[in-house]
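Technical note accompanying the year-one report. For the benefit of new consortium partners, we illustrate the data format agreed upon in the data management plan: each record pairs a sequence with a structure-token string. No post-processing was applied to the example shown here.
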Amino acid sequence: MNLFKVNIRRQLFEYIIIFSIVVLSHEFGHFIVAKANGIKVIEFAMGMGPAIIKFQKGETLYALRLFPIGGACVFENEDGLNPKEDSKGSFQNASVWARIATVFAGPLFNFIIAFLFSLILVGFVGSDTTEIYGITENSAAFESGLQKNDEIIRINGERVHIYREISLISFLNRGEEMQIEYQRNGTNYSTKLIPKFDEATNRYYIGLQGYQAFEPKGLEIVEYSYYEVRYWIKYSIKSIQSLFTGQVSKDDVSGPIGIAQMVGDVYEESLEYGIPTVIINMMNIAVLISVNLGVINLLPLPALDGGRLMFMFLEALRGKPIPAEKEGIVHFIGFVALMILMVFIVFNDIMKLFM
């Protein structure tokens, strides 16, 4: 029991560190762009629920709240429902483009922090190229004529830069024909293949055996860091799409508890290889979570940054805002739906702990 408690505390501590970095970058994006546009920030908070630490500095209350499941950057008269608060620095008195920039800055800063971490990861660990390490005999790739050391350039017209993009496309394939463009000895070729189904794993395989490692130098580090973030954006988008197509089940979705457990498991597995490996793997997780948070917040759903941006773009097109009361109702419904979804995800996380 004592060992179990120690592991829980460690998982929670590691999760809170990564959570703090990801959420802080998101809320700081809102905060810094709001300040630049003269918008008053009433509160800057980490976490949700009752405040355990708080202090006032100028017009802003800074708070650390009990539950590490989110954050907030609250602007003066943000919802437009309190005309008495419509001072010069209120959110509603800022231009529509200043408000768009302020809301968009949260997800943008998630991508920025992910890129900065990727610079460190690629600089120290390297990256994966699309050069084929090996081919499984009698596989779809083998029968298509692909060979070891061929460099895959495009799949179904989609440009690929790192091997994980190929793996993602392969994982999501359900037996559809794939058009492969590749390069061999400086010459470009094209071939077609149909992945083969494997009953043991219940998925389709191309038949590629890994990738060639690559250590970027100079500006290549910047280039491959961009590809790294680009890959995780594609991964997040396609994962969300897979939820609606049934390719990913509810058991593949994790909330705060599931993420904390994953962080703890990765920490334990990495520890035997030394602290540098732990740091690298924690950074990898931070990149994934940060990009995922950025993508999810840009979805055009009520109560998310994407939903708010949708109303602001409509305002820019119409030349006048949607009535605050109507927009508020939409966001309130969206918020309630998100809370219900969060309860379901947390319950699902708890059930998976006992499976």
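Partners are asked to follow this layout when depositing records. Strands lie at 41-57, 60-75, 127-132, 151-155, 158-159, 178-184, 187-193, 196-198, 203-205, 211-214.
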